[in-house]
Amino acid sequence: MNFSLLPKIELHCHLDGSLRPETIIDIAKQEGIRLPSVEIEALERELIAPLNCESLDEYLKRFAIPNLVMQSKENLRRISFELFEDAAQENVKYMEVRFAPLLHTVKGLSVDEIIESVIDGMKDAEAQFDIKGNIILSCMRTMSVESAFEVVEDGKKFLGKGVVAIDLCASEEEGFCGKFVEPIALAREYGYRVTIHAGETGIGKNVLEAVELLGAERIGHGVFIKDCVEAYDVVKEKQVVLEMCPTSNVQTKAVPQYSEHPIYQFHKDGIKVTVNTDNRTVSDTTMANECTVVFNEFNINEEDYQQIYLTSVEACFADGETKEKLKKYIYNGEQ
């Protein structure tokens, strides 16, 4: 199968992990921002995490440089537009992009301005390309509970206008869910959907708590439910959808190599899985590449692909009209 031609859906992609290196250099030159290098190849070595990363924390260090150029409304709008443009070029029909607004306040932008700029970039792309999108607001687990409340409160006015969900991300420690019960409960009350990063770094119990304490409908990664029977059973029973990111999981050492990734085993056992990039630049990947890796590694057939695509449709936080359109792409073979 040629995955660059097939319709695709992406539910787990970080804005700040998916910048074009050329754009970083261009903005840095315009604004006098110092970079380790203004040569593309040298900068890429700073931006792209190797497959032999030691840990998730080493992987996360790659986000420092992109955030330097994500501190103005114009830049955020441009970067958002370019991400959706890049996705559209490989026939991604729908995409949910997540980002942490509080990382972009360094030069005085308000959270409102930040969220609005990213939505504007997405809408610019929707107007030019055959792609639809939505935005997920991430709260950093390394920040205070108060900061999570701030994101929830400031983002609520954008619900139904481009923002659909709330997320918790960054370094994963055991038991983090208990700390954020109240802000996530408030988010659900306001109408946010809930997806939580959990089970990425060897702590399957975090997935259990994300579902039971936070009401997570989807889990970012969730690899380590394989080592926690209670989490595995809850995910399977409640049909919680896993947003799996194979290349990223190899880089962060969630799995040693592609062949040991549990995505296909989960899929065959009735757990709902989706395929995603996580970070297009940091992981040096695309949706076409992720699909190719998974389907080559596990000899998955066209029927499997259709099932995973339709799982993505059902799991996405889009409205009913968008979902119906997305189903037609796979049923009718529309390009």
Task: Summarize it.
Keywords: Hydrolase, Metal-binding, Nucleotide metabolism, Zinc. The chain has 335 residues and is an alpha/beta fold. The chain contains 15 helices and 8 strands.
Describe the secondary-structure layout.
Blueprint: E1 8-14, H1 21-31, H2 40-47, H3 56-60, H4 64-68, H5 73-89, E2 92-99, H6 111-128, E3 132-140, H7 145-155, E4 163-169, H8 181-190, E5 193-198, H9 205-212, E6 218-221, H10 229-238, E7 241-244, H11 246-251, H12 263-268, E8 273-275, H13 287-298, H14 302-315, H15 320-332
Parallel strand pairs: 1-2, 2-3, 3-4, 4-5, 5-6, 6-7, 7-8
Helix pairs in contact: 5-6, 7-8, 9-10, 14-15
Site (Important for catalytic activity): 221
EC number: 3.5.4.4
Cofactor: Zn(2+)
